Amino acid sequence: MIRVLFVCLGNICRSPTAHGVMLGLLESEGLNDQVFVDSAGTAGWHIGKTPDPRSQQAALARGVDISDQRARQVSAEDFETFDYVLAMDRSNLDDLKALYASNGSQGTEPKLFLRAFGRSFDEHEVPDPYYGGEAGFRHVLDLVEDACDGLLADIRQKMDA
């Protein structure tokens, strides 16, 4: 089984959105029993909480239900557990790299999600929509849907190898 972890700051907007979008893609491709997806935050402020209501609304408008997810904080063990550790922005990536280094640089090295798998946008980060309006949440979905398509293609290559 291939394991994917999406990481943002609080695990209530961007990473649960990517988690939900990826689950939907995997289900539609019949791969949900071969790929495990999770999400986490670099900070622990929202542990146990559901995704931000605005993220839930934006995702649901595109047929993605993320309401059953609960926030958790990333741990050093995640680098050993997951094949992909994907940060939403450079700040998240810096936090992940520090945790990775403190763990002796063992396991999966974190990557910047959009830079690694995005295909249709010039942006390299998924911006945090928390302090903005509804358009920001829709833009996150646009970016995440594109990058999840690229990630799925990468996963398929690994499965076929």
UniProtKB/TrEMBL annotation:
SMART domains named in the record: LMWPc
InterPro entries in the record: LMW_PTPase (IPR050438), Ptyr_pPase (IPR023485), Ptyr_pPase_sf (IPR036196), Tyr_phospatase_low_mol_wt (IPR017867)
List of catalytic residues: C8, R14, D128
Example of a GO MF term: protein tyrosine phosphatase activity
Gene3D superfamilies: 3.40.50.2300
Domain of life (superkingdom): Bacteria
Domain Phosphotyrosine protein phosphatase I: 2-154
EC number(s) recorded for this UniProt protein: 3.1.3.48
Enzyme class, broadest EC rank: hydrolase
Key words of the record: Hydrolase, Protein phosphatase
Family statement: Belongs to the low molecular weight phosphotyrosine protein phosphatase family.
Name the UniProt record assigns to this protein: protein-tyrosine-phosphatase
Organism this protein belongs to: Thalassolituus maritimus
